[in-house]
Amino acid sequence: MSRGPFDETIKEAMQYLRQRSARFSYMAPTEPGFSPKVPHLAALATANARGYTVNLFSSDKRLPINSPILSTAPYEQADAIVGSFGGRPYSSSSRALASLYVSSTHSIAPAYQPPPKVGDTEVNLGEGIYGFEYVNDTSTPGTPMVVWHEGDWTLEVWDGSITQDLAQARKLVGYLHRHLLPETFGVVGENIAGDGEHTTVEWVYGNMLYSVFNYQSGLQAVEMAASARVFPSGQRRP
Q1: Which of 90, 97, 178, 198 has minimal Cβ neighbours within 10 Å of its Cβ?
Q2: Is the pLDDT of residue 57 over 90?
Q3: What is the DSSP string of 156-216?
Q4: What distance in Å separates the CA atoms of residue 46 and residue 14, rounded to the nearest whole number?
Q5: With contact defined as beta carbons under 8 Å apart, do 158 and 191 qualify?
């Protein structure tokens, strides 16, 4: 069975997690799909009965997993935060699937939120993909927004101008024309904010909800999800 090309830091984090909890299948992004341009990746990794999380940072030197340095102020700065990935078990596959379409009010980039209740216009996003743009004055929550579907996935970009949202949606469509997201039900939510393209991607296999988050780049978040493989086998799905 082939093994995925996991970055050394991610491999160490996953080995650390599996030693502490082997009760569910782990997935993690792989190279070359996910190769952030940082001096070194550093990681904080946690696992318990409620799931696992790996937070990734840019560091100027190699650090051990869960180094105390990663909890200090310099690593709270936006330019030090790369993102995160993880998984959460649910009591059933139906509960895991339903959780995809619940909008989190506590997230800076919920993976899904209901489209705004304003008129929509069909737009061509390229590569044979059409979506809908929602435009109103900024007093209407959730606008502007661009929404489209690819297979069993729902993708949303919002919080920029409609021109910015459309440009980013077309960039993601172009990438996904060449790279497949996990072949299951999933959602992508990108918030074009002043300090980065905060993006969350979530998908479901069985009773597990997997997720990735990227602080700076919507494209890199999608790269993380498209490159995700089961650890340590490298399989595309559990």
Answers
A1: 178
A2: yes
A3: EEESS-HHHHHHHHHHHHHHHTTSPPPSS-EEEEEEEETTEEEEEEEEEETTEEEEEEESS
A4: 10
A5: yes
